[in-house]
Amino acid sequence: MGRVALPAWLQPRYRKNAYLFIYYLIQFCGHSWIFTNMTVRFFSFGQDSMVDTFYAIGLVMRLCQSISLLELLHIYIGIESNHLLPRFLQLTERIIILFVVITSQEEVQEKYVVCVLFIFWNLLDMVRYTYSMLSVIGISYAVLTWLSQTLWMLIYPLCVLAEAFAIYQSLPYFESFGTYSTKLPFDVSIYFPYVLKIYLMMLFIGMYFTYSHLYSERRDVLRIFPMKKKKM
């Protein structure tokens, strides 16, 4: 007897694409909500809205960034084609800044840099998740492909500068409150502001590595895309 063909919705490739589409859609909706909320609040309340950005959308932002850790699992098990280390560096940047630097210090949450940082993150993610979501179902647009592979060239360095500035502004509060600073056995102590200063230097090293990878990826994608259009 011949093998019975499985329905399309039971085939592994279909299930994988369906899962990725739903994941990208959830992320797109989350980041779109954040960006729309920030835009409406700014036009309604002006600069005053920037002060309480974290209080208004911080929960949704933390939820979106927490869910994004699934992308490391996607790459590891092979359902998403990407390099693990560059994505790991990008995600850890955001997790450290959002959860360690901003969330732990209420004084930092009121800084303008938090609003600026959230705008940069959401601009990148809305374009990236839109492109990824459509790619999963085989839809591609030249403008969107170019934008997803080009927007980061300006925004990503600005993100890193904003992250570094957020760390700089948080240092006095970590020094005065002693958050995360602790004493270990054998008279060893961890002074967290020193850890942040070390991480500040590593942030720019990681930016160079990530930027180089993204530029190489951009070159490959934009070289292949015209060939795909000709075949179509």
UniProtKB/TrEMBL annotation:
Substrates-to-products reaction catalysed: (3R)-hydroxyhexadecanoyl-CoA = (2E)-hexadecenoyl-CoA + H2O; a very-long-chain (3R)-3-hydroxyacyl-CoA = a very-long-chain (2E)-enoyl-CoA + H2O
Enzyme class: lyase
The keyword Endoplasmic reticulum appears for this protein: yes
Pathway: Lipid metabolism; fatty acid biosynthesis
Annotated EC: 4.2.1.134
A GO cellular-component term linked to this record: endoplasmic reticulum membrane
Keywords recorded for this protein, A-Z: Endoplasmic reticulum, Fatty acid biosynthesis, Fatty acid metabolism, Lipid biosynthesis, Lipid metabolism, Lyase, Membrane, Transmembrane, Transmembrane helix
Signal peptide span: none
Compartments in which it is found: Endoplasmic reticulum membrane; Membrane
GO MF entry, a single one: very-long-chain (3R)-3-hydroxyacyl-CoA dehydratase activity
Keyword Membrane: yes
TM ranges: 20-43, 55-79, 129-147, 191-211
Main location: endoplasmic reticulum
GO biological-process terms attached to the record: fatty acid elongation; sphingolipid biosynthetic process; very long-chain fatty acid biosynthetic process
Topology relative to the membrane: Multi-pass membrane protein
Family: Belongs to the very long-chain fatty acids dehydratase HACD family.
Functional description taken from the UniProt entry: Catalyzes the third of the four reactions of the long-chain fatty acids elongation cycle. This endoplasmic reticulum-bound enzymatic process, allows the addition of two carbons to the chain of long- and very long-chain fatty acids/VLCFAs per cycle. This enzyme catalyzes the dehydration of the 3-hydroxyacyl-CoA intermediate into trans-2,3-enoyl-CoA, within each cycle of fatty acid elongation. Thereby, it participates to the production of VLCFAs of different chain lengths that are involved in multiple biological processes as precursors of membrane lipids and lipid mediators.
Name used for this protein in its record: Very-long-chain (3R)-3-hydroxyacyl-CoA dehydratase
Organism in which the protein naturally occurs: Prolemur simus (Greater bamboo lemur)
Gene name in the database record: HACD4
